[in-house]
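User: Can you fold this complex?
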Amino acid sequence: MEQNEEGTMGSGAAVATEAKQAPVNAPREAPLIEVRDLTKVYGEGESAVHALQGVSLSVSHGEFVAIMGPSGSGKSTFMHLLGCLDRPTSGSYRLAGQEVSGLTRDQLAAIRSRQIGFVFQSFNLLARTSALENVELPMLYAGIPQKERDERARMLLEQVGLGERMDHRPNELSGGQQQRVAIARALANGAPFLMADEPTGNLDSASSAEIMTLFQHLNRDKGITVIVVTHAQDIASWSKRVVTFRDGLIIDDRPTGEASS
Amino acid sequence: MSITVLIRTAWKALQRNVSRSLLTMLGIIIGVGAVIASMAIGSGAQAAVLKQIESLGANLVIITPGSITTGGVSLGSGSRTTLKLDDINAIAANVPEIAGVAPYSQTSAQVVAGSANWYTVIGGTNPDWLSVGNWNLAQGAFFSKQDVSRVAKVAVLGSTVAANLFPAGGAVGSTVVIKSVPFRVLGVLQSKGQTGFGRDQDDVIIVPITTHQERLTGQTWVNSIMISAAAPETVAGVIDATERLLRLEHHLAPSDADDFTIRNIANVQQVREATVQTQALLLAAVAVVSLLVGGIGIMNIMLVSVTERTREIGLRMAVGGKGRDILLQFLIEALTMACAGGLIGVGMGIGISFLVSMLGKWPTVISPFSVFLGFVSAALTGVVFGFYPARRAAALDPIEALRYE
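Assistant: Here's the predicted assembly.
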């Protein structure tokens, strides 16, 4: 089955494998994310909604970017496209040097499996399933053997500070702990790129700070590229770069801390 | 994902709501149970029929008198008096490849032996009856050809009669009185037990046909003639030769219809088997309908499950699950449910078969084939009806699914 999975990835497989090792091989040529004139239109004709109206952005390996904007600004649509959950109407998106805008559903699934780790506002852990098994889930789809799955999941849970709670189920964990399980899960297949959608939206300020510290640690010490979508200024302040959306366009892109106009 | 992981995941999902899973399986359980129980009961009946045919002898050809039709009203088989003892002698002398030919007439009477009495069937025949009817003697001897020609007042008792008239034993050599005529008991027959349909074959007294006619009934014809063909292959030839001979004996013109009926026990067997097959077909139809309903139940619950777990599906897709992975997950969940239902159904079918044979005194035979068939149909139902919900799950849009509340 593992072999089949590799097979169905087709031309993407070679690039994906290359990209997986990319973070180690400094210096790199291509940026991790390179988006050019990306548009997304929902619906057709008169009622068509132009959620993105030509967005270009480049994110290098090791960056920590916050994407901000009011609701309806297109930041969620942009995040779905960056996360390979959806396909753009037009424009180009190169992830780790590979053009992904024209890939099929299954090819996108393969990219998500290897390249992108998702962290959601509502954690999205499987209920009645231990922290360990939750972290193993992406590895099941990547076809990693049992022994390796187990070892890696344990290592990751220790890394996020949950070494003592591996067998706990989500309902036995606090919100902050659940989000840390989700982060361990996002890292399971060694993705170079974490995509977090309002990761602290359901957490109190103490837990929020813990989670953001964890992101900072992963970014600084492990070289993992982090993109956080948020509407909260204090969360954005943990990042190194803030990109602001409005009406389907990027209206501001500057290093964190510099005053916006 | 490996198949073991998929099965484990499916099992876990089913455990999440045990009562719902069980209720969903109910249709499958009943369907499979019905398949196995009905086949067990059907083949039990078939076995009983076969046993009876075996006890009669498979090469048996039975001749009964034809029916009388007066003014369009038929009085039914055996209402004519066309079969005579002469016919038996003619058959014995002229039809080749027969092992034996025996007349049979019967009447009922109260039989007295000392202080005991018993109401039973009195059969009249000749010594060939023993081999033609596949009987054996438990004690004493059967009457001889001389006894028949001498119109001897001798009798052979069935084991039920012997047990009731002579509870202490010692039947052989005693005297029984039938219709005021004393008969000397020559022997006792070995028990044959009940027929497949509950008639006690041992509740009988056998006397020479001549004595039967002259002393007990006064009738000059016989009720039936039984011929035992030498081998199964010769049955057809024996029937043919007998028919021609009897037409000749009865002086029938070529335009006349037979005034007798010749049947082979194999014909009877075929008719009985056809009946059993019809019953089995009916029960199979019930089982199919039940499985269909069970399958729709599974499809229904799987659709509910897909809706309930939309977010889970979205997450699985986000972390790299492909359409095929999701499809397989839900398909295997439906399959697991159907197979579990199938297993319970197999258990239930076997249980019902045991109950029927214990309480209903109906012979049942559980064939491994029916168990296999029941289980495979359950699994097939799971796959067929699990496919649509699974495909719906696999076709979900990951973004929509993740957003689902």
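Chain A touches chain B through 29 residues (CB under 8 Å). Residues 138 and 188 of chain A are 7 Å apart (CA to CA).
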